[in-house]
Amino acid sequence: MPETTAAHVEDELASQPDCWSAAIASVDRFSAALPDAGERVAVVGCGTSLYMSRAYAALREGAGHGETDAFAASEYRSGRTYDRVVGISRSGTTTELVELIDRLGPSTRTTVITADAATPAAARASNVIELSMAAERSVVQTRFPTTVLCVLGEALGEDLGDVVAGGRSAVTDPLPVEPATAHQFKFLGLVWAAAIADEAALKCREAAGAWTESYPAMEYRHGPISVSGEGTVVWMFGDAPPGLADDAVATGATFVDDDLDPMVDLIRAQRLAVGLARQNGLDPDRPRSLSFSVVLQPGQF
Questions:
Q1: What mean pLDDT is reported for the chain?
Q2: Res 299 pLDDT > 90
Q3: How many domains does the chain have?
Q4: For residue 293, is it within any domain?
Q5: pLDDT digit string (tens) for 224-263?
Q6: What CA–CA distances, in Å, run from 223 to 187, 205, 242?
Q7: Domain stop point among 109, 137, 160
Q8: Cβ distance 109 to 83 under 8 Å?
Q9: CA–CA separation, 47 vs 95, rounded Å?
Q10: Of 22, 34, 120, 169, which is least surrounded by CB within 10 A?
């Protein structure tokens, strides 16, 4: 097994509360780049950044700040009109986002949130939010996306003090399940937490090649429950709908439903992904067939 197994991703996921605190303290510096209340906004990204886009869109609309859509960068609805397009990209080099900003042109106000401002996406944007404190070495993203969500949540007026404190505990507290006791994981959430569930499932797939699924919580009964059973973990982010835990447990599955903020609970899912990778003899810093950034050649997009 490579000597660097889990080193980068473990360090990065453990540093999240410190990154969150630093980002929250920096929000005022980014005010000109952040959407104003009442603006009609599209948020775009790829992979993990798409899930953070979806979470932010739900939080922003829920807070009454204005209509907010979220798209994969490759699925942007060019026929719609927005006051601002926000792109999320850790690397700032993702082809789909770079090409989208080029297509939008200078007539569309764009903001790119990235870990490195000296990159093609940032160079093309009207505004840049650089979160260098959350830069990562591992291919598997952990602290960058959650730090993005902290900045955006703080800008919406959320009080994240308890989230930061909860994150510090989640880094070391025992996991709710042992990786070796399950072979299938289903992650569920409601509204913005449904996107966090998607991200948790992605982490376990990327790092460990694990059998993971994710759904809006009320969709669990509409098919996914049929393949639950002994050895299945059904993990709820946020409050569970009434009766859902009973239905999951009746299949023989283990139901995880703790009183944690979904972003705090995501740290535990990230740690689970590392544990699963170790169990499977894999290096979670180097997922199979993945790279730090998807940069496509001409003709691939």
A1: 94
A2: no
A3: 2
A4: no
A5: 999 999 999 999 999 999 999 999 999 999 999 999 999 9
A6: 14, 21, 18
A7: 160
A8: yes
A9: 13
A10: 169
Q: Are residues 90 and 234 in the same domain?
A: no
Its domain, for residue 185, covers 164-279
Residue 301, pLDDT score: 67
CA distance readout (Å), 250 to 10, 135, 138, 177, 232: 35, 43, 39, 18, 12
Structure tokens at 135: 């830069």
| Whether residue 138 sits in one domain with residue 11 | yes
**DSSP state string for 241-301:** PTTHHHHHHHTT-EEE--S--HHHHHHHHHHHHHHHHHHTT--TTS-TT--SS--PPTT--
- What are the structure tokens assigned to 187, written together? 């992650």
Question: Quick one: tokens of 152?
Answer: 């955006």
Task: Tell me how many degrees the CA angle 75-80-86 measures, rounded to the nearest 5.
Answer: 65
CA distance 79 to 294: 26
Q: Which pLDDT value is given to residue 289? A: 81
Same domain for 138 and 17: yes
Please report, for the domain that includes residue 253, its CATH number. 3.40.50.10490
One domain, residues 176 and 156 = no
Q: How far apart are CA 235 and CA 47, in angstroms?
A: 21
Residue at 294 is within a domain = no
Total residue length of the chain: 301
d(CA 42, CA 109): 11
What are the distances in angstroms from CA 256 to CA 176, 201, 234? 7, 14, 6
Looking at the domain assignment, is residue 288 inside a domain?
A: no
Q: What is the pLDDT of residues 180-237, one digit of tens each?
A: 899 999 999 999 999 999 999 999 999 999 999 999 999 999 999 999 999 999 999 9
Q: Are residues 35 and 118 in the same domain?
A: yes
Same domain for 102 and 205: no
Contact 230/250 with Cβ under 8 angstroms?
Answer: no
Asked whether residue 203 falls in the same domain as residue 85, the answer is no
